[in-house]
Amino acid sequence: MMLPVVVSQQITGDHFASIDLLLPADLLWFSGHFPTCPILPGVAQINWVMHYANQLLGQLPVVRSIDVVKFQRPLMPDDEVTLELNWERTNHKLMFKYLVQGEITASSGKISLCQ
C-alpha cells in the first residue's frame, strides 16, 4: 500500500483542504526506512501533498520548485496526522503542513507550481 488511510477530509472553497490520515505500519514507504526505527520519508510526504492537492483542489500545474521544506518531527507507523493544503492560486504557491495530534507540526513547506 502506497497511500495512507483517509479518515476524513474537508474542502473549503477551491483553495484549502484538510485531510485526516492514518499511517498504517504496513505502508510500503516504511519498509527499509529505517529497519530498526521506521519513519516516513520526506519524498513520500511531498508525493502525498501533490496527490491530495490534485485530487481535492483540482488539477494543479506541475511543480516548478520546492522552495521551503522543514521536517520537524518524524512521522512514524500508526501515527494519525492531519495534512493541511493551501493553494495560493495568484502566487502559484502550494503550502502544506502535516500536523500530529492536530497541533504539533511534523513538517511543512511551500511548493512553487508552473504558471
TrEMBL record:
SUPFAM superfamilies (UniProt xref): Thioesterase/thiol ester dehydrase-isomerase
User: Is Disulfide bond a UniProt keyword of this protein?
Assistant: no
Domain ApeI dehydratase-like residues, every copy: 15-109
Enzyme class, spelled out: lyase
InterPro entries (UniProt xref): ApeI-like, Dehydrase_ECs4332_prd, HotDog_dom_sf
A Pfam entry, by short name = ApeI-like
What is the organism lineage in this UniProt record?
Bacteria, Pseudomonadati, Pseudomonadota, Gammaproteobacteria, Enterobacterales
Q: GO molecular function terms here?
A: lyase activity
* Enzyme Commission number: 4.2.1.-
Which keywords are on file for this protein? Lyase
Q: What is this protein called?
A: Hydroxymyristoyl-ACP dehydratase
